[in-house]
Amino acid sequence: MRFKGLDLNLVVALDALLEARSVSRAAERLHLSQPALSAALARLRVYFADDLLVPLGRTMVPTPLAEELQPLARQLMEDATVFIGTSNVFDPTTSRRRFRIGTSDYITTVLLSPALRAMQSCAPHIQIDVYPTGPGIQDKLDRGEVDLVIGPEIYLPTGASAELLFEERHVVIGWNGNPALNQPLTLEAFLDLGQVAVRIGMDRALSFAEDHMRRFADQRRIEVTTTQFTSAPMMLIGTSRVSVLQSRLARTFVEQLPLAMQELPFEMPALKEFVQFNRTRQGDTGIRWLMDLLRRLSSAG
Q: For the chain, which end, N or C, has fewer CB atoms within 10 Å of the first or last residue's CB respectively?
């Protein structure tokens, strides 16, 4: 389709090229061949009478005109997304849509896994891609490369479009052969035990629980750290170590493995898990259906 002489498909290519600053990476993002995207760039250069992107080493540098065009192209893409999402009728029973969700292995286990079981009957053709959370996940959400991000309230960017999914408490979990877990734990007993702590991502950022246990930093015996919540329980079996985990996740593993759990011997606020979405998707009936499904399942947990 052309608008004032410009093939609007070229706007999609321009947005990807200016974001990736690489023909090969932009082609991969758009699922096009590299020659096809090179041809699109050539047509854009002719239309705007400007090089737009100039090779410099292994990357491409935008020209001054390209820098002016980038926010305009991005806004046009976002407005088009709103237009398409608002006019779209979503039927989960027949849809073959692929949803992309950024979240932790904890949410994947306690919420997305039950959601997939529910979809088996009510939305059998829906597909789900799960992305790990981390420094780049917010950019992916802003660019529309993921549909939803699910995570704790404390990690929400200021002004984010988000809704509360559920609240969660934390418990102590350990091997059921650990005599320390045969009775309610005191704070002294908890601090005397070796512990497995969860630190998030390559930068080893503190999890919600670890952040709230910083007041015990000089007293705790952290003997093992891991970047995944779901790996901690396996590290406890046959040892005297314990870990502080979300109660839904702890319950899941206690039902399957020789593990036991106890209440925390100190106060910790509830963990509030939010689902975040791009503001351009508010009229997307498919996104709303998925969020409603996740909310129903989380309230049942």
A: N
Helix and strand tally (H, E) in the chain? 11, 15
Task: Tell me, yes or no, whether 15 lies in a domain.
Answer: yes
User: Residue 33 gets which letter from DSSP?
Assistant: -
DSSP helix/strand/coil, 172: strand
Q: Are 108 and 130 in contact (CB under 8 A)?
A: yes
Cβ contact 1:7 at 8 Å: yes
Assess whether 80 and 131 both reside in one domain: no
Distance CA 29, CA 36 (A): 13
Q: Are strands 205-206 and 127-132 parallel, antiparallel or unpaired?
A: unpaired
Q: What Å distances lie between residue 203 and 153, 197, 211, 226, 227, CA to CA?
A: 20, 14, 14, 12, 10
Residues 294 and 111 sit within 8 Å (Cβ to Cβ)? yes
Q: Which residues span the domain enclosing 224? A: 170-269
Quick check: helix, strand or coil at residue 218? coil
pLDDT tens by residue, 130-145: 998 877 888 888 888 8
Q: Residue 69 domain-assigned?
A: yes
278 plus 161 within the same structural domain:
yes
Sequence-distant (6+) residues with CB within 8 A of 139 are none
| Residue 128: its H or E element | strand 127-132
Of 234, 225, 237, whose CA–CA distance to 195 is shortest? 225
* pTM of this structure: 0.71
What pLDDT digit, counting tens, does each position of 183-198 carry?
Answer: 999 999 999 999 999 9
User: Do 113 and 159 belong together in one domain?
Assistant: yes
Q: Are 196 and 236 in contact (CB under 8 A)?
A: yes
